[in-house]
């Protein structure tokens, strides 16, 4: 296992080292509850892998069961939404060299995936959990990733958005996801140039949504209400929650190959992986 990762996992208080001003400095940290806290990345920071002639893109990827094996953690290690449970999961991983190696590999592949995708446009990671829960899990199980996301020099185009509250119904969650994606288009990607949203050329951009939920696929289509020239490209990842840890690493590598390849496409699509 990477010695730096091992050092973080052995830390007796992994949550105590969280940045003290994490919520008040959204542009310093990648963690926030408010998508409008971020700058208009689509135009301020040109994608390093995109020629000027190719459609600009933004990416939205779910944290749970797309980027991280949350279902596996709940089923196999009894992960729950509490600091005590997270610490217990960490101790189980530390007692198993196999699990240490598995999570170190997942972390490495996850970092590679995020770096690869964000080279083609701003990337927004969306979670069903609170931002504090996401950051706590990240700091404990994926410390190198947490470092990258909290750094001012690495992964500057990757942002993590947590749910503002625990949803009481599927309808409440669906409404939040629709509003979130619309706000991302209107208040973030075009914040500096809102007039471009209604321009058939300047307002044309790709929005690639990768999610295990049908509600997100529907929400991506609903972005047309605020961004009439958006090219909605959705990838429904429905089987990742049932993968073993070894297969989850392969899943991350498949996404690293496939998601960037969707960037040049200038027509809307919806597929299932």
Your description of this structure?
This protein is of the alpha/beta class. The protein is built from ten helices and seven strands. It has helices spanning 3-10, 41-44, 70-77, 83-94, 97-118, 131-141, 143-150, 170-189, 214-221, 245-262; strands at 31-32, 57-62, 123-126, 158-161, 205-211, 230-236, 269-272. A seven-stranded parallel β-sheet has the order 1-4-3-2-5-6-7, sandwiched between helices. The two termini are 30 Å apart.
Could you describe the largest sheet, including whether it forms a barrel?
Answer: 7 strands, parallel
> What coarse outline follows from CA principal-axis ratios?
globular
Distance between the terminal alpha carbons, to the nearest Å?
30 Å
Question: Which radius of gyration do the C-alpha atoms yield?
Answer: 18 Å
Strand content: 5-15%
Q: Give the overall pLDDT as a whole number.
A: 83
Question: Using DSSP, what is the number of strands?
Answer: 7
Question: What is the H/E order?
Answer: HEHEHHHEHHEHEHEHE
Q: Total helix count?
A: 10
Side-by-side strand order of the widest sheet: 1-4-3-2-5-6-7
Give me the secondary-structure category. alpha/beta
| Residues in helix, % | 40-55%
Unreliable stretches (pLDDT < 50, length at least 5) are 1-29
List the helices and strands and how they pair.
Layout: H1 3-10, E1 31-32, H2 41-44, E2 57-62, H3 70-77, H4 83-94, H5 97-118, E3 123-126, H6 131-141, H7 143-150, E4 158-161, H8 170-189, E5 205-211, H9 214-221, E6 230-236, H10 245-262, E7 269-272
């Amino acid at each position: 296992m990477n010695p730096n990762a091992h050092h973080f996992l052995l830390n007796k208080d992994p949550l105590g080292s969280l940045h003290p001003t994490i919520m008040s400095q959204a542009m310093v940290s990648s963690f926030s509850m408010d998508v409008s806290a971020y700058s208009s990345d689509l135009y301020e920071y040109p994608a390093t892998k995109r020629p000027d002639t190719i459609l600009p893109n933004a990416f939205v990827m779910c944290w749970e069961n797309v980027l991280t094996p949350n279902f596996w953690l709940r089923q196999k290690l009894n992960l729950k939404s509490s600091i005590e449970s997270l610490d217990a999961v960490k101790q189980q991983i530390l007692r198993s060299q196999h699990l240490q190696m598995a999570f170190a590999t997942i972390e490495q592949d996850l970092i590679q995936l995020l770096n690869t995708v964000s080279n083609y446009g701003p990337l927004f990671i969306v979670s069903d959990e609170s931002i504090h829960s996401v950051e706590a899990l990240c700091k404990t199980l994926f410390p190198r990733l947490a470092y990258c996301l909290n750094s001012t020099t690495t992964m500057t185009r990757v942002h993590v958005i947590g749910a503002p509250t625990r949803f009481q119904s599927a309808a409440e969650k669906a409404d939040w996801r629709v509003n979130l994606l619309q706000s991302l288009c209107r208040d973030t990607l075009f914040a500096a140039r809102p007039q471009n949203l209604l321009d058939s050329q300047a307002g044309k951009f790709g929005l690639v949504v990768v999610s295990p939920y049908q509600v997100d696929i529907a929400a991506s289509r609903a972005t047309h209400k605020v961004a009439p020239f958006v090219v909605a490209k959705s990838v429904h990842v429905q089987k990742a929650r049932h993968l073993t840890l070894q297969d989850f690493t392969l899943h991350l590598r498949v996404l690293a190959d496939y998601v960037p390849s969707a960037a040049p496409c200038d027509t809307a699509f919806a597929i299932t992986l």
